[in-house]
Specification:
The chain folds into two domains: about 160 residues, no CATH class; about 150 residues, NAD(P)-binding Rossmann-like Domain (Rossmann fold, 3-Layer(aba) Sandwich). The strands form three sheets. It has a six-stranded parallel sheet with strand order 12-11-10-13-14-15, sandwiched between helices. The chain is an alpha/beta fold and about 325 residues long. Helix 1 runs antiparallel to helix 4, helix 5 runs parallel beside helix 11 and helix 7 runs parallel beside helix 8. The longest helix has 16 residues. It is built from eleven helices and 15 strands. It is elongated and about 65 Å long. This is XdhC family protein. It comes from Acidovorax bellezanensis. InterPro entries: MoCofactor_Util/Proc, XdhC_CoxI, XdhC_Rossmann_dom. It holds the Pfam family XdhC_C.
Amino acid sequence: MNHIDITVLEQLHRWRSQGLHAVLATVVHTWGSSPRPVGAMMALCETGQTVGSVSGGCIEDDLLQRYTRASTQPQEHHCWTQTPQRVVYGVTADEAHRFGLPCGGTLELVLEFDPDASVLQQLTAQLHTGVLVRRSLDLSSGAVTLSHTAAPEELRLDANALHNVLGPGYRMLLIGAGALAEYLATMAIFNGFVVTICDPRQEYMASMQIQGVQRTHEMPDDAVTLFKPDLRSCIITLSHDPKLDDMALLEAMNSQAFYVGAIGSHRNAQSRSQRMQQHFDVDPATMERLHSPAGLRIGSKTPAEIAVSIMAQVIACKNNISLAAPLPHPVAA
């Protein structure tokens, strides 16, 4: 679940608790190229306000035209009492062009009219505790039930119900304060991650200027334990100090984190691997979880460029994109 999804649900709750009509749109299927992934959400208020997105903007415009107009025409007020609807955009080439979808792109939405404010309040409250919540929508009645689950699940839609597991959001733990941590944290926040920076060295942490991150002075291995990494967590060591990095990596590689990385040269990476296998009995399969040196090979030299390369690799792992295979060479004309 991305941070924007929580924002969508919170704003939707505010509108409904004020007695305003609102629609929740969820992307449930995509075919071909699509601007937004399955599970993406958008909320629309009768006043014309929106939060979140399901496309590049044109589908949002169409939904606005339909439902803000309906809210001002008494003969169409019945739309707010409708049961959930499934709508498809981009079936024809003309529609794909009209709605700004990429060539061949088609997506299906489930629209929910006037979701219950009390259920939304329960949902957002539970998400803020960091638990996973399965939200099940009955397509025939519009009733929503909430239940806890132990692991993330893919969105499921059948003839009777929509099941969507939400929360917690993506998190990033950085070991080692400094310029690289500031650049990487900034990029991660822009991409919806909640960021924690750990460094027991007070002088390094004192120079950090970035806002919007959580800070801890715990020893790194303790910080990883307290972080409680899950399948939506990533952990990256940036300190260049084996006394800090190694213990954190030992904890991280044995966690559920979807990405574990360490900066350094290839020589440092080899030394780290040998050290961990010889002194800590780390097996080769566990070492394969470690991205070291962290980041894509783009010739990065500056802290900002290195942060770009690491963030790109993190996003690729988050989206289950394999970058192991080399890119094809262009064919000469």
